[in-house]
């Protein structure tokens, strides 16, 4: 039994090592706490100690989804009971994800549903295929973009009474670092108060609903290690993780790719992220 466990861990390390052989340059993972490079097996052991692993991405950036898949493979091969929760599917499409993983949905049916939720299918296809092959549960976290779009344009109070009854209350009062992030993301300046407030409310609503959906899954499935795939603005600690901390005692770690003008080895802090993935340079999937 022990030898089998060791073999699985070695296989996981080899799989996970592929993350570091991307494109024309090697990628590295940096522990933000002390600015040190992390050995693959040590990082994997840390991920196995927590309930949630957040892996951020910049949507459409080559290599980010491939790195996410390698981490999912590494955890699964190491014997973890893994689930994949994602921004890329809405919660009301959960039956579609369940049928896909169970083998009761054709690829064409999945792709049709996928395009009603997200884009860039070729980049995410290997993740869906691996989940089906290994029977790894997939969890839709998102809410309707029509809702967040309306809040971003007109504010939370603009929603209909039926929507307001179903959603958690939102009031934007961010700390300076979160406000600075949103202003950089939007290109806003100090005189854009209403536009900033509306966008901030939409972002907070997004994070709150995804956190609530994630917590419901964790409460119903104790013992799972949930890998969360989400954009950088949701996966960093001021996003979904902060909402998780406010509502539960679940432990998590956050891995984010280095992103120009937002997260870098020189500026990142442990208030934002635990680990930085640097140097991912793969081309498009085929």
Quick summary of this structure?
With 286 residues, this protein is α/β, with parallel strands linked by helices. Helices cover 48% and strands 15% of the residues. Strand 1 and strand 2 form a beta hairpin.
Describe this structure in words.
This protein has twelve helices and eight strands. α10 (193-220) crosses α12. It is an alpha/beta fold and 286 residues long. It is globular, with a radius of gyration of 19 Å. β1 (28-31) and β2 form a beta hairpin. It starts with a helix and ends in an 8-residue tail after the last strand. It is 48% helix and 15% strand. It has helices spanning 2-17, 40-48, 64-77, 94-102, 107-115, 121-134, 145-154, 161-166, 176-186, 193-220, 232-235, 240-247; strands spanning 28-31, 36-37, 52-57, 82-90, 138-142, 225-231, 252-257, 275-278. It has a single domain (2-278), classed as Rossmann fold, CATH 3.40.50. The longest helix is centred in the last third of the chain and has 28 residues, at 193-220. Strands 2-1-8-7-3-6-4-5 form an eight-stranded mixed β-sheet, sandwiched between helices.
List descriptors.
disordered N terminus, alpha/beta, 12 helices, Rossmann fold
């Amino acid at each position: 039994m022990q030898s089998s466990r060791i073999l699985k861990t070695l296989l996981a390390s080899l799989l996970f090592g592929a993350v570091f052989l991307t494109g024309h340059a090697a990628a590295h993972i940096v522990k933000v706490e002390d600015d040190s490079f992390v050995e693959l097996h040590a990082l994997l052991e840390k991920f196995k100690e927590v309930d949630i692993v957040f892996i951020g991405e910049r949507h459409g950036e080559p290599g980010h989804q491939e790195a996410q898949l390698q981490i999912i493979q590494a955890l699964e091969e190491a014997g973890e009971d893994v689930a994949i929760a994602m921004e890329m599917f809405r919660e009301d499409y959960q039956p579609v994800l369940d049928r896909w993983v169970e083998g009761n949905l054709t690829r064409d049916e999945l792709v049709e549903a996928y395009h009603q939720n997200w884009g860039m299918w070729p980049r995410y296809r290997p993740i869906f295929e691996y989940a089906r092959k290994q029977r790894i549960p997939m969890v839709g976290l998102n809410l309707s973009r029509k809702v967040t779009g309306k809040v971003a344009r007109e504010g939370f109070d603009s929603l209909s009474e039926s929507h307001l009854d179903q959603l958690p209350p939102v009031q934007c009062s961010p700390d300076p670092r979160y406000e600075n992030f949103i202003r950089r993301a939007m290109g806003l300046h100090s005189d854009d108060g209403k536009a900033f407030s509306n966008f901030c409310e939409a972002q907070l609503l997004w994070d709150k609903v995804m956190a609530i959906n994630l917590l419901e899954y964790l409460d119903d499935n104790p013992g799972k290690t949930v890998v969360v795939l989400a954009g950088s603005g949701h996966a960093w600690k001021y996003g979904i993780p902060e909402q998780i901390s406010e509502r539960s005692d679940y432990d998590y770690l956050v891995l984010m790719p280095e992103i120009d003008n937002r997260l870098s080895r020189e500026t990142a802090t442990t208030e934002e992220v635990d680990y930085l993935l640097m140097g991912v340079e793969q081309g498009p999937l085929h």
